[in-house]
Design goal:
Shape: elongated
Organism: Desulforamulus profundi
Order of helices and strands: HEEEEEEEEHEEEEEHHH
Largest sheet: 5 strands, mixed
Protein name: SpoOM family protein
Number of domains: 2
Radius of gyration: 23 Å
Number of helices: 5
InterPro entries: Spore_0_M
């Protein structure tokens, strides 16, 4: 009787521990592991055993934590005194998760609801890496002499944005390249914003374009072939700009009302906007018709994106 009473207060009750096979997981692949339940001093019933995938970020000095998904590990079972039980789990990381890059961090919160006792839990870090297709693009840009800017990976109105500056091939015509990933219905697309130097038009003028990456190029996984494909595309775009002038408006506005549950079609990182909701988005972006406008190094509270104020979390080189 005394043991049951103490267990109801959490003393000598069952405990839970989550063990990941790998704390780093690519978008499009599965995070796997097991939950270890250790029985306490008495037999106990477990109502629910869940793992929350939570995301933490900071907006204008205020920290937010949102649950991205909940993994239902087990329901309604008993754990005997001193028994140890291992329960495997897995969860696919979808494209609308932002990367653990720059300003977004993740953690797994394991929660066990014990019948007539204090609930218990465990917390573990998770690092979300780019999909193999995304990594191929990053590697190809690096091969072309592009370097990622400090602060790249901010969340804009549609999702996560990555910013690069050229150091070799395109250093004369380009000041900056910004990209957003879009993936839906077997399409893998880059939405690009090219900030031009005075070589083609006046300094700071922006040209918006998009690039569909062929499935066979992505499947091949060759960084050299991807770099050549992107290089030829950029050269062609810059030649068109020199003749016709830049395209001032982005072409993705017709995709903003997609059916994906992130609320923003297949934009990578779009789930953050969906989590925050329309009211929060409005307060952050009202008066800024073009979320790409402005310098990423602006002051806190600027309207061009979220100023998270956190350091990198995970592998810088992906």
């Amino acid at each position: 009787m005394f043991k049951k009473l103490m267990a109801s207060f959490g003393v000598g009750a069952a405990k839970v521990n989550l063990v990941l096979d790998n704390e780093q997981c690519r978008i499009g692949e599965k995070v796997t592991g097991k939950v270890i339940v250790e029985g306490g001093n008495i037999d106990q019933g477990i109502h629910t055993l869940d793992v929350d995938i939570a995301m933490k970020f900071v907006i204008k000095g205020k920290e937010f934590t949102r649950v991205a998904d909940t993994i239902r590990v087990a329901r309604d079972f008993h754990i005997k005194a001193r028994e140890t039980r291992e329960i495997p789990f897995e969860h696919a990381i979808p494209v609308h998760y932002p990367l653990s890059k720059g300003f977004v961090t993740y953690f797994l919160a394991t929660k066990m609801d014990i019948a007539q006792a204090v609930d218990t839990g465990d917390t573990d870090r998770l690092v979300v890496l780019p999909s193999r297709e995304m990594a191929l693009v990053f590697d190809a840009l690096e091969a072309l002499g592009f370097k990622e800017k400090i602060g790249s990976g901010k969340i804009g109105r549609l999702g996560q944005e990555f910013e690069f500056y050229p150091t070799t091939l395109f250093a004369e015509p380009l000041k900056e390249l910004e990209l957003k990933f879009y993936s839906e219905n077997n399409r893998f697309k880059l939405f690009l914003e090219l900030e031009l130097t005075g070589g083609y038009m006046r300094n700071g003028l922006e040209h918006h374009t998009e690039l569909d990456l062929p499935a066979e190029l992505l499947a091949g996984g060759s960084v050299q072939e991807a770099a050549i494909f992107i290089k030829e595309f950029l050269e062609n775009e810059l030649n068109q700009v020199s003749v016709q002038g830049p395209r001032m408006a982005p072409s993705y506005h017709n995709l903003q009302h997609g059916t994906h549950r992130s609320g923003f079609g297949g934009f990578m990182g779009g789930m953050v906007a969906g989590m925050l909701g329309g009211a929060m988005l409005g307060s952050l972006f009202d008066g800024d018709e073009n979320e790409e406008a402005g310098d990423t190094g602006g002051e806190e509270g600027s309207e061009d994106g979220f100023d998270f104020g956190l350091g990198d979390f995970g592998d810088d080189d992906f």
